[in-house]
Every structure is written in structure tokens, then in C-alpha cells.
Amino acid sequence: MVYAVELREVSKRFGEVEAVHQVSLQIREGEFFSLLGPSGCGKTTTLRMIAGFERPDAGEILIRGQRMNEVPPFHRPVNTVFQHYALFPHMTVFENVAFGLEMKRLPREEIRRRVAEALRLVRLTGLENRYPRQLSGGQQQRVALARALVNRPAVLLLDEPLGALDLKLRKEMQLELKNLQHQVGITFIYVTHDQEEAMTMSDRIAVMNQGRVLQVGTPVEIYERPATRFVADFIGETNFLEGRLVAFEEGYARVEVEGFPLLAARPDGLFPGQSVTVAIRPERIHVSLEEPLAFPNRYPGQIEEVIYIGTDTLFRIRLNERLALRARMQNREGTAPLAGYAPGSAIWVAWIPESVRVLRE
Ligand code: ATP
Fold this sequence. Notes:
By secondary structure, the protein is of the alpha+beta class. It has helices at residues 43-51, 93-103, 108-121, 137-149, 167-184, 195-201, 219-224, 229-234, and strands spanning 5-14, 17-27, 32-36, 58-63, 66-67, 78-81, 155-159, 187-192, 204-209, 212-217, 239-249, 252-257, 260-265, 275-280, 286-288, 297-308, 312-320, 323-330, 346-351, 356-360. The chain has two domains: 5-233, 3-Layer(aba) Sandwich (Rossmann fold); 237-360, CATH 2.40.50.100. Helices cover 23% and strands 37% of the residues. The strands form four sheets. It has a six-stranded mixed β-sheet with strand order 6-7-8-3-9-10, with helices on both faces. Adenosine-5'-triphosphate binds at residues 14, 17, 19, 37, 39-45, 193.
């Protein structure tokens, strides 16, 4: 299979720092693919190597099956949109978007047609004659996008393009970008440290840390079946409990955590006797006043803390001196504030085995 972009064991050092370590990725044609990870994990360096701004020390970069290592940036079928989009301030919107095509000396009529199409895609039709200073931050970012799209690249590289926008606008632009990508069908590779942003927009996500790719998967796979503790922690909230894998029974794994027996979905590649980390998402923990007899995993506890955040109520619940859990309950009509769920209340926590993920220590 020919991929839009393929990285084969690509590494890059800056002096002592190994910015990218043996990264392999296979990005499909038409995919919205995100590189997600904390600051300094190597996302930008990976993107810059695809763009051609950095040269890998080892490994191979292919675009549509062609080796790119020796190809300069301007000969690669890619365009990059940065957070700081650097529009030409003395040029109008039209001139900014047309600039690249004029450099290529395309016929005037074709330039006009392609610029009009790009501006329509980013919903800026009618603003052709404005200057960047007469536009909002979101509009300026759309001009930068149009400027990249007008070249019809095979792959569009985006490095935190929404980073400078306020939260509300950023959320709007996330959906717009996703729709836009769908319409144009161009492969997008998107760098972000914001897990919600990556989840909202991506077909697949590569989670990176310390120069390595830890997991590649759809948002659902990454959230529901995180491969490592780092991934479970970085994407959403998780309770981590240290325990020991005791046995496999009837398709489940029996784990012991601080004296509590616990049934979990059966993990791959782990065996009875091993020390493990158990991960449970707060929203998968049911909190109730009555003992929930239908759940195999149910434990009495005491509420330590209640935080009402509108959509949900967050709890810290103590099971014994050494064990406390965070739980999150959705507030429905008539349930908030929750009567009976106050600090000090005796309650039950429960969860189904499928909600428990057993990870290597
Ligand atoms: P951020 O979100 O903060 O941009 P990132 O995940 O994109 O982080 P990179 O910018 O790729 O991470 O950096 C990875 C590592 O390489 C960091 O430790 C960084 O300091 C280092 N690094 C990146 N570029 C250079 C450079 N030109 N010279 C020296 N070190 C660099």
C-alpha cells in the first residue's frame, strides 16, 4: 500500500537531545492525522522533517511512496500552516492567497479562480480586498489556510494552527477545519498538545512522549484502550491503582489491589503473578447510596470531596486508608445538587470489568 506519508524509523538529535527516536508512521491518503503529546515530545520536529525543514539523522521519509530525504522543502508536495501565520501586512487577502500562484506564473484567470475557490472553502468570500490588520485572529488564520490550500498540496501540515486563538473561537475552528478537510480530501497532519482538540478532529492520533510514538489509533481506541500508563494519563482522567494480576477466569482477569479483589477485562501480553497498574476512568465508576448488587466490582466507601461543575459532579471517594478514587457523575434533571452525596456520606462505588484496564506497571 502506498501511504500519503510514511516514516520509517526516523530519528533526529540536537546535540545531547534525542528529539525524535525511531519513529515509524503510516499516514493514509485523505486522513486527518494528529501528532499529540506534551511540550518537547518531538511533534514539531517530526512535522518539520516531513516538511523538509529538518533532515533526519536516520530513517526514511516517503510521500506517496517517493523518498523525500534529499528533496528540498519547496519541491515536496506539502504546505505548512504555522501558529504564527505571518501574512504579508501590505497585501490584501486576495494578494496574500494569490502570492504563491503568482510566483509560479500561472495564468491570471486560473489564479483568480483558484483564489476564489480557496476563499470560499475557508468562508472568506467578500473579504478579498481587506488587509490582514482589518481581520480578526480567526479570519487571519483562515487566510493562512487558504494560502496553503490554493497550492493544492498532497499533504497539509499544521503546527498548532489554532494555538493563538481564544478557547471559544478555537472550538469553532476545530469543527470548521474538520469539515474543510472532509470537503477537500487532502491529507492533514496536525500537531497539537491539546488532547481534546486531537480527539475532536482526528481520524487517527499518534501519542508521543520523549521522542517516541507510544500508540497510534482512532480517538476511541486511544481513549478506551490506552496502551500505556502515559497514554491513559495524558488522554482524559484516570485513576491508577497498583496491584497484582492473580489469575484469568472466564475471560476476565482477577487483580488484587490493596487487598481488594477486582475483575478486569483480560489484558494482552500479561500473565498471572505480574505486578500491574489498573486504570479506571472516573466517569466509568458508578456511585450509589444502595449496594449495586448487579456489579461484580462493588465496594463500600466514604465521600471525601464533592465538586459541582454544572454538567457533572466530581467526587473523591475513600475506600480505605491507602485507597481513594476519583469518580465523575453526570448531573441529570432533578439530580443536582445530589441529595445524600455530601462529604462524610457512606456510599458504594461499582464498575463493570470492561471499564478496568490492566497495564504493565
Ligand atoms: P512544543 O509543543 O513545545 O513545540 P514539541 O513536542 O513540538 O514541543 P519539539 O519542538 O519537536 O517538541 O522538540 C523536541 C526536543 O528537541 C525538545 O527537547 C527541544 O528542546 C529540542 N529541539 C527542537 N528543536 C531544536 C533545535 N533546533 N535545536 C536544539 N534543540 C531542539
